[in-house]
UniProtKB/TrEMBL annotation:
<keyword id="KW-0949">S-adenosyl-L-methionine</keyword>
<protein>
    <submittedName>
        <fullName>Uncharacterized protein</fullName>
    </submittedName>
</protein>
<dbReference type="InterPro" id="IPR040372">
    <property type="entry name" value="YaeB-like"/>
</dbReference>
<dbReference type="InterPro" id="IPR036414">
    <property type="entry name" value="YaeB_N_sf"/>
</dbReference>
<comment type="similarity">
    <text>Belongs to the tRNA methyltransferase O family.</text>
</comment>
<dbReference type="Pfam" id="PF01980">
    <property type="entry name" value="TrmO_N"/>
</dbReference>
<dbReference type="InterPro" id="IPR023370">
    <property type="entry name" value="TrmO-like_N"/>
</dbReference>
<dbReference type="InterPro" id="IPR036413">
    <property type="entry name" value="YaeB-like_sf"/>
</dbReference>
Length: 163
């Protein structure tokens, strides 16, 4: 198979399907340096009727970073849309039905399928976070969590939110 834009032979993992045609990563991104993103946990379904609840099971090695986490009311969860999907340059947005470019949507089908969702933190038990409002599927890798900006504004005196 060849790249539809530059006619290079495609290597496994070095291309994406965009609007139903193969495009190599060189045409999409240039020649960026590689880097690693490590998962800190995984999304899990809640036993019984969930009511919009999901669990985030943090890897046991992450518990050292959880001090005071249970005091937060909201979190920003950064996760990877790990199920492969075809990229489209335009999509119909779910909230207003407008045809928009990919970067103007919240679609998980992205070149770098990094997704960000603000959630309500319901409880923390050991390394398990119970959250409401996470639009990820069970089995989804979580790559970071942090207090949401809304949680910071509601619970702290005015200060530097980046620390």
């Amino acid at each position: 198979m060849k790249c539809r834009e530059c006619d290079r032979e495609l290597e496994e993992g070095a291309f994406r399907i965009v609007d139903n045609v193969p495009v190599c990563l060189m045409c999409l991104c240039g020649d960026p340096p590689a880097f690693a993103v490590l998962p800190i946990g995984v999304v899990s379904a809640v036993d019984g009727p969930g009511g919009g609840l999901l669990e985030i099971w943090l890897h046991p090695g992450m518990t050292r970073f959880m001090r005071d986490l249970s005091e937060e009311t909201g979190l920003t969860v950064i996760w990877i849309a790990h199920q492969p999907q075809t990229l489209h340059t335009t999509l119909v947005r779910g909230w207003d039905q407008k045809d928009a470019g990919l970067f103007a949507t919240r679609s998980p089908a992205r070149l770098n399928p990094i997704c960000v969702t603000d959630v309500d933190l319901i409880s923390v038990t050991d390394n398990i976070l119970l959250v409401r409002g996470l639009d990820a599927l069970p089995g989804t890798p979580v790559i970071d969590i942090k207090p949401s900006l809304a949680s910071l504004k509601n619970s702290r005196p005015s200060s530097n939110p980046s620390s």
